[in-house]
From TrEMBL:
The keyword NAD does not apply. This is Alpha/Beta hydrolase protein. It comes from Cercophora newfieldiana. InterPro entries: AB_hydrolase_1, AB_hydrolase_fold, AB_hydrolase_sf, Epox_hydrolase-like. The keyword Hydrolase applies. It comes from the Eukaryota. Gene3D superfamilies: alpha/beta hydrolase. One of its GO terms (cellular component) is membrane. GO terms for molecular function: hydrolase activity. Pfam families: Abhydrolase_1. Residues 31-270 form the AB hydrolase-1 domain. Keywords: Hydrolase. Coiled coil: none annotated.
Amino acid sequence: MASKLHSPASFKTGDGVSLQYNQTGPPRGQPLLFITGWRQAAAEWRKQAEYFSSAGFRVTTFDQRGHGDSEGPDFGYRISRLAADLNDLLTHLDLQNVTIIGHSMGCSVSWALWDQFPDSHKRVSKFVFVDQSPSMVIDPHWNATETADAGALFTPVGVYDLAAGMAAQLESLVTSMFTTSVSESDLAWVVEQNKKMSDAHAAALLTDHSFRDWRDVIPRITVPTLVIGGEASLVPAAAIEWIAKQIPGAKAEIFTKAEKGSHFMFWENPEKFNAVVKEFVTR
C-alpha cells in the first residue's frame, strides 16, 4: 500500500532560519535522508520519496535555506552553513542509522557534515553520493588526468561569469543537466523549482560551492558508500570512479547514455536509480 505524504513541517536552525522538511513512510522504517543539489527543491525527489516510502522506508526530504519552500534569509549561503543546517536537522529529528543520499551540491554538504561534525558520524550508517565533483574549479597547473579525476568543470573566471549572469543562463544551465529525451513540461517544472531561489543567493552559494575542494575529506569516510554518475552528465565519470576508489569498499555505478545517465538520472531513469539504491541500502 502506498504511503500517504505527511504534511510539511518546519524547524529552526541554530542561527534562527526556518527550514521545511517532509517525512513519509512508516515511522519505524529504515531511515533515508535525501539532500538536493544547488538551487533544487526537495520536491524533485518525489519519485524516490514515493517509491521508498511505499517500500517501507522512512524517507526525509528537506528544502535547504533559500531553496524551495524554506526561508531565504540574506545570509548563510555557503557550504559550511548548509552542513550546519543539515546537522541541526539530524539533531532535531534525532535520526539514527540513517543513509544519506546527496545529489550534486548535496554531496558537498554531506562531505562538509562529515568534516565539521564528527560527533554526528555515529548517526550515519551509509552514504550515497550522486554525481558531484570532488573539486569543481580547474587548477591551471593540473594535467588532463588530474582535471578529470577532480571532475573540474570551471575556470575561476568562468565561475564568476556564471554567477554574474545567473538570470540569463539559468534555463540553459538546467537544460544541460538532462538528456534530450526529457519532456518540455518536466524541464519547465524543474526550472520553476530553481527559480524559487533568488539569483543573488544562488550566485553567492554557487561561488562558495564551486571553490570547495573535498579531496582530503573523501578518503576519511568510514561508512559503506555508493557513488553514482552518468555517461551523459556534465560531471566526468572518471571523477565518480576516483571518489569510489578513495573510500574503502565503496562502489561506483555509472549510468550509460542509453540508461539516461544525465546529471538527473534519478529523475530520468527512476526505475534503475531506485533499484540500485535499494539494493545498496538493504544489503
